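Still learning. Show one?

>
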Amino acid sequence: MIKDMLVNLSMGEKHPAIDYAASLAQINEAHLAGIAFRFDPAMQTSAFGLFPPTLVEMAIEENEQAVKKATDDFQRAAELAGISFDSVTVPATLVGAGEAFGQTARRFDLVVVGQPRPDIDSAEELLIEAALFDSGRPVVVVPYIHKGPAKLENMALCWDGSRAAARAMNDALPLMRRAKSIDIVLIRHASERGEIEGADIAQHLARHGLPITLTEVPQGEVDVGNTILNYLADHAIDLMVMGGYGHSRLREQVFGGTTRTVLASMTTPTLMSH
């Protein structure tokens, strides 16, 4: 059961992740906590020495206003959903925010984060990384183009037999029990032959009384990530479940190729576990 959830309150324009998290908490009768990170400007030097204190003060004031707007938006969404909620503001550096978010998320059943908006210098990708790899909790990433409340009628599980996929499947069971249909999506390259794999996992989920359909999807000429995205768009999936994959902790190599492709171009809320 999902009894409490954590959502990141991003700065700037209101992200649909806030309303999505509130409605998902309402569905599960769960408490929702919001966390906002206030990024105070560091004293930096320029060719002419330190920036004037007045500029630093202006930046601090802008950050304070952005945090207030984010927490106000969160409070309105939570009150409208009729759920219990609380929020906290944490001063942090960009790197420190990721560490704090990952540690805080360990105390909640589910984490919700917004997909980073394009062309905006935001902390969302760092927070997704921290939640996915450091919290030990499932993470729902909400597309920045998402509209409307959370829906769980039609779900899809992207299954490749991996540990991460098994973890995601198990983490998603409380949500899957609310679905009317669940597609187990198996991506197969055109060169592969033989019986369809995944019958065992379909049988496992059927024992839970879930409405399962086993679906084989040919990969074709595109990579696995885009094959998944195309399937979701064609079948009006409300929530996708998949393992989140990572490699080296070097910044540019944290996410595996499929995970990065999905995060970059997603149009469907996606639950990931690692």
Q: What stands out?
A: The chain has two domains: 4-142, 154-273. The CA atoms of residues 110 and 242 lie 15 Å apart.
